[in-house]
Design a protein that fits this description.
globular; binds copper (II) ion; 3 domains; six-stranded mixed beta sheet; about 475 residues; mainly beta; binds CU-O-CU linkage; Immunoglobulin-like; 5 helices
Amino acid sequence: SSYHWIFNEGSDGTPQLVNGEINIEELYKNDFSDQNITEYNLTAEEVEWSLENGKKVNAWTYNGSVPGEPLRVTEGDILKVNLKNNLDVPVTIHWHGAILPNVMDGVPDLTQEAVQPGDTFTYQFEAKHPGTYWYHSHQHSALQVDKGLYGSLVVEERDQQNNYDREQILILDEWATDRNPESLTTMPGMMMGGMNGEADTKQMYDTYTVNGKSGTSIEPIMVKKGEKTLLRIINAGYQVQRLSFPKGTTKVVAYDAIKTLDKNNQASVIEVAPGERVDLEVSNHQSKPWFVSNLTSLEDGVNASIPVITNKNDNYENIEPNQAKEGSSIDGATLGNKNLIFEDTPNQVDVSYEMDLNMGMDMGDGMVFQINEQQFPNTPPIEVEEGDIVKVEINNNGRFNHPMHLHSHRFQVESKNDQKLNEPIVKDLINVKPGETFEIFFKADNKGEWLFHCHDNNHADLGMMTIVDYE
Ligand code: C2O
Ligand code: CU
């Protein structure tokens, strides 16, 4: 393959790991003596996890719960996480959406060696931009994220004028409770059943979860009358989730940690693609409870409705779930952003890459997911030099959703289906639906080897992945 261990390249000044730890001042070539360090210990461990009464799964976790321990750090501070691996398989932690040095990116065989059973590794990086992020293992992601190795990471604004009365994090996922997820990802045949966007995964999973809980064990959202709650929603699963809110209750304020423009940002249906995050401002004009419904239903499965209550004694057992399928819908390709990378579509482009997404058959592997008719690691890399302006045109020629995620860079979406957007969008993940084309631009300003892949982790593990490779 074309990649190698970056931290073996001592010659270019890349700091060396010493006992699984790196000197952060050397790493950033910066003095951090005045900076706060927020430190966490995360242990990867197996637990029996209860989704709800009578529904237990065998989970792999960070610190014994699904999701793992929520991490919180203030913008500009150093996040230091000591990972201990108590599983009997290797793991890593990837900091999804964070802009950080390549050695901290948590991609096994590319930015570090996976952390072996019994071993430790210390991640350290500066929390550069405020917003909603998440962390997850990047070792055999289709299996490990599926089994629960994920959690939230919130970077708080340093000078926060807090607009919200309360805040809640919702991590969405789906589980297969009646079979071992291992068999799901090692049986490509499972994925051939359906030929439209979501039929593949629908067959495998039977239970939607919110913060690791299903059914009546889902913890309600609290929005008191006259108050505003900030919901930070993270999709850690495989399916695009469509959440339905009653009219007038909900505004989108950020996608992927990047603030959206404060106009046309109300809708009754809000989509969150796998790997994507959306921040919502929810208000409540009535003093009775209601439900956020998930319109992405599992065939013969258990769907998640999230109760919204106005005080903790509210009884919501007999309320009809809100099912507003009609009306306006917002997804990650809808709303423009406040802070753009490029004021105008760059007309000087240094690297131009055409990325065609498709499905294919491989003699040995059965069904595979491809970029430019190749599977990783044979997919052509995006070769850049530091300082380049890079344009990527992503075409989805297949019948599945491909939420494409670029590690540790933000990109600007300039056009969709060959139409220039009125308001450019800045993201780290764009869900490219069947038949869609996006034109994105980014600045090659973070040296290293970075994955660019589909965040349906099954698709990624079956080949839909490439590397942005700096000279
Ligand atoms: Cu959530 Cu390779 O990333
Ligand atoms: Cu995909």
